């Protein structure tokens, strides 16, 4: 395992005043700004201190401790595609756009505005006078460099975001045109979480060394990463965007076990914890120190069936899985009502959600058994059900419940729960034939639907259907919001007819939050320190 990464250690390579300023800004225990200009005069009539009196002690820097179950995957900002990773990188690196949970839309971030001169062109105008944490000016060159790396770096896990971009044209230092292969109305849903890097720094040091410095334009500056333990960030006092960060230091801790996270919160060792399981909610609410803040998660759950593996090439077996699982029982029982059963490809809070989409598959074990027999398995069949472990609330218990339900209809499912990184890697490589999973931060569904259902986009499902492909292209090409909703409705119905997935549930995403923290919980798994205030 790599050792701790610290910015100050690497900055010894640099010279000049900017380095000193960064080292001071990132030094632990540094004084918080006083809010009073140096050399300010005393008000008339104020008592004067004795000549030898020592100056008052500096204010103690404010600090917030945020806890996720998993660590970031490393210092390469594109070597991941999970919401908790994006959430932490968003505090260091800015993005072109960002999602505003209050407006429920994508809004400019480093961008100032955008327009579509024609269906295959997006023209993005960027802010001026934005600087990286090391003082380098931000320009369009940094955006082009970053997007090119997403598309071409062998370590990138975000390549699919760039597959529809044919050309990047620099108009001037603050204007960029993206030429797309096909019209792309929801393009910002793919670009909003791409970290924008410092081109000059990467060209000077090489990307591996520059990644270890993690110098962005975001509300916080990288200070230290201890793998498996913590990511430490220092407030950027010159942040260009909103909201302005007010807490001096943010520590993102890693505690895999839910019980240990709750204990840390109630013992005063954490301020915000992610994904509180149902059995801990009352403990937190009655503690007097913290409360529970929740939001229905924008993360549709599903059981995926890769048709390049038998028996999932047979639609009857895919339908059998859909009829075999009792979604309401999972939500009411294991989740204690902290969620909602899902019968469609996308859930509440997502553009295009329509609970009336048909067909739907409700619990019918007799029909499921009949389909298994019709598919040629009168004595049943043995399969392995891949499941995440300690990634989602009650994931192990839910996996075991699904396996039991499937076994009862002749699909003898053996749960497999490898370490999460191994499990997710197998999904991305197309080596997980039958698995329980979910897709996070689905506000606009386009990227998610293309990721799983568009031929060649990824290997996660490898399901192909000509009508689904046609509708995916059509929804991207439809810029009129009302017309696009109609296309999304037809697309969902077509996916349901083919049943490559059994859609399962969405969680109520509950956070444990110390009473001293002012913050409104989000459904996209982001815990941005810049949004938080200390009371």
Biggest sheet features: 9 strands, mixed
User: How far do the termini sit from each other?
Assistant: 38 Å
The CATH class of the domain at 301-508: Alpha Beta
- Looking at this structure, what is the CATH superfamily of the domain at 301-508? Dipeptide-binding Protein, Domain 3
- Strand composition percent: 15-25%
Protein model, in words:
This protein is of the alpha+beta class. Helix content is 30%, strand content 21%. The chain has 17 helices and 22 strands. Strands 1, 2, 9, 10, 11, 12, 13, 15 and 20 form a nine-stranded mixed β-sheet that branches. Helix 13 (395-408) links the parallel strand 16 and strand 17 (411-416). Helix 6 crosses helix 7 (207-213). The relative contact order is 0.15. The model is unreliable at 6-54 (pLDDT under 50).
Give the topology, please.
Blueprint: E1 5-6, H1 7-10, H2 17-26, E2 63-68, H3 83-92, E3 97-100, E4 105-108, E5 111-118, E6 121-126, H4 140-152, E7 165-172, E8 175-180, H5 188-191, H6 199-205, H7 207-213, E9 220-226, E10 230-235, E11 249-254, H8 258-266, E12 272-273, H9 281-285, E13 290-296, E14 301-305, H10 315-324, H11 327-334, E15 339-341, H12 365-374, E16 381-386, H13 395-408, E17 411-416, H14 420-428, E18 434-438, H15 446-453, H16 466-477, H17 481-498, E19 501-503, E20 505-514, E21 517-518, E22 533-534
Parallel strand pairs: 2-11, 2-12, 16-17
Antiparallel strand pairs: 1-9, 3-4, 5-6, 6-8, 7-8, 9-10, 10-11, 12-20, 13-20, 14-18, 14-19, 15-20, 21-22
Helix pairs in contact: 6-7, 10-12, 15-16, 16-17
